[in-house]
Amino acid sequence: MTNPIITDLENRYTAKKYDASKRVSADDLAVIYEAMRLSASSINSQPWKFIVIESDEAKQRMHDTFANNFQFNQPHIKSASQVILFAHNPAYTREDYAKVVDKGIADGRTKPEEREQAFGGFAFAELNTDETGDTSTWTKSQTYLALGNTLHVLARLGIDSTTMEGVDSELIGEIFKDELGGFVCEVALAIGYHHSAEDYNAKLPKSRLAMEDVLQVL
Fold first, then answer.
1. What are the residues whose beta carbons fall under 8 Å from the beta carbon of 190, sequence distance 6 or more?
2. Confidence bin at 79 (pLDDT 50/70/90)
């Protein structure tokens, strides 16, 4: 099949070693960040926060979060161009959704007189809230929508990436407490350019299950 989307996805892979001398350009970063902001989410909830680890000081702090676990991902922190924390709101409330509704009014998507009706969608958030007010199962899922969108954007831009669920959420919560503001990070994304000589995964062929094994048209 010849299609630029398919080419993007065929070329995309998980980088295993980064070239620390190469950095993502400011222009490409602007595209990436805007694409993240425009990601889809259930009821347009946008229950996320994206924290970019870029400076040497921030990278050292992130490096320190691997003190106890997942050291196999630690080398990416200082060699990648940036590391992005995909954090979710573990207790998404009506007040949080009100920000979405009011932004919709400001953008002309919702009429001011229909503000209260616009809260109808929040019923879905309530369905995904437990008796303690925890919404993390639902809101974490939304961050993965943003993550998937970001992976394709990176592939289109020719930028390598490594999705890291192997992160210490507890230590990240402690070390980046001020930046997270109560949000929780359980997945991060390293971005940059792979090391041409040392990234073994770059040379391996793409492998996916056959179409008939995963797709059924009724």
1. 15, 18, 73, 76, 77, 80, 82, 83, 161, 162, 164
2. very high
Q: Is the Cβ–Cβ distance between 62 and 180 less than 8 Å?
A: no
pTM of structure: 0.95
Mean pLDDT of the chain, nearest integer: 97
Give me the residue label for tokens 């990278």: 59
C-alpha to C-alpha distance for 3 and 145, rounded to whole angstroms: 23
The token pair at 57 is 């000081």
User: Alpha-carbon Rg of the chain, whole angstroms?
Assistant: 19
What is the largest distance, in Å, between two alpha-carbon atoms of the chain?
61
What is the spatial distance between Cα 102 and Cα 112, in angstroms, rounded to a whole number? 8
